[in-house]
Amino acid sequence: MPASKKGKQDDIEIEESWIATSTYVLTTKGGLIPVSTLKAEEKKEDKVKSTQLKEEAQYLQQEGLIPLPFEADSLLFLKDNCAYFDACVKQIAKDVIGQGYTIELREGMKEKKEEKERILSFIKNSGGDRDETFEQTLERGIVDWGCIGWWGWEVSRVIVGNKKGNVNGFWHVPAQTIRVHKDHNKYCQVRGDKKVWFRRFSQKEDIDLHSGKTVTEERTQEEKDNPGDKDKKIVRANEMIFYRNYYPQSDYYGAPNILPSVGSVTGLIGVRDYNLAFFENYGVPAALIILKGRWDKASAKKICDFLDVEIKGSDNAHKTMAIHPSQNSEFIFEKLSVEKKEGSFDTYQKSLRDEVLVVYKMPPYRIGIAEVGSLGGSTASESTRIYVSSVITPLEKVVERLVTDKLFVNGLGVKNYTFNLNELDVRDLDAIAKRDRLYFEMGALTPNQILKRQGKETYEPEGDQYYVSSAFIPAGEEPAEKMNATMIAALEELKIKVNEAVERK
């Protein structure tokens, strides 16, 4: 110990060397911080600090792009690792787009063959060299909406000289690669260190594909950098139709419905991984191993290595560990957990699954869950109606509006036709058949009316006749009693005529 000076303060001897190493300051956060640490922090504050931005953040700020409100790639990871999340997103896309579509004439408008052919030609050739069908582009946008919260569709136009013509291409842009400009008039796709730009659909000013600047600004800058070189070709950027699911915390990006339930998705993944680890361990429970008496120092490590490494996996199943304790030694194996792990999370897993279904209003049976009880029983039809009215129908209206107003009207110059998605058929056909039969038997519906409701061909003229129950006597005929009396009278009359004929002979 180094020599120290001794002083006297309140009759207590204090060594200065102890003060230097043992003095603390109580902070407002409730922690004790050594004085030496505070002094070191004071010295750090005097140092010159760099204010440089990271490469991506610097690029975003310089180009006026708004950073994402959350990490989109992490949502993609969760989707890839949670069957319920993935199934909900894909099923919504199928229910919205997969039912087909029709091109319908606006009310009060006349048929124009040239406009109809222009629409059909665009839809047929929209994917260009990427071989992406029109329906696939729409469906992938809905998948992005469900997983990330926004979507982007790239649109190209025919360029004749300096004039822009009709749209001639339509593709999906992965949502996680899109960055929105602060002015809302252009977008940038970022993949690693590669970047390309898009202008907002119907934006009048052209921008350069690689720089994002307006064509006029880009041309002027090139002339300054390279005087006399006026032949450099400016690549005009394509347009983008951008749609976002409203998110209060961002004016530029949306958010998926799953965002509040990310914890549930993470929990489902955790349950899966826990059970996989249990089965990989081949059912060896957590245990306390006690070695009493005289044991080699390496014995405990060898036993642990065998249980943690060598016995794991199906290739190492049914191995046996033999222990030979000495006369004064004892091996004790005490289980710390004896319940079945594979069944311990059933209730927890179901509650997590239900939360994922709730945020998408998804009826369990639509993603293949044979639910018995309130959701899959008497309230199945009600939950389906909620799903259609709150999720499917609103998305259908959005897609119909964007395609009709953006692509047809502004892109193709077509004003007489609209794009309409076919509605999802969630009818209970058995219940409808029972109701139609009831109305038929009481004379409220004719066979032709029922056939029309089913989209089938009618038959004339019998199909327009009303019928009543029981013997299905055509409505409007005489009652059975009158018919019987008439028949009896006719038989009596016939009998009299026969007798008269016999007597004449």
Your description of this structure?
By secondary structure, this protein is of the alpha+beta class. The protein has 15 helices and 15 strands. It has helices spanning about 15-20, 35-45, 55-65, 70-80, 85-95, 115-125, 135-145, 215-225, 260-280, 300-310, 345-360, 380-410, 430-440, 445-455, 480-505; strands at about 5-10, 10-15, 25, 30-35, 65, 100-105, 150-160, 165-175, 180, 185-190, 195-200, 240-245, 285-290, 330-335, 415-420. Strand 9 (about 180) and strand 10 (about 185-190) form a beta hairpin. Mean pLDDT is about 80; it is low at about 1-35.
Widest β-sheet, arrangement of strands:
5-9-10-11-12-7-8
Number of strands: 15
Span between termini: 160 Å
Figure out the total of helices.
Answer: 15
Average pLDDT: 78
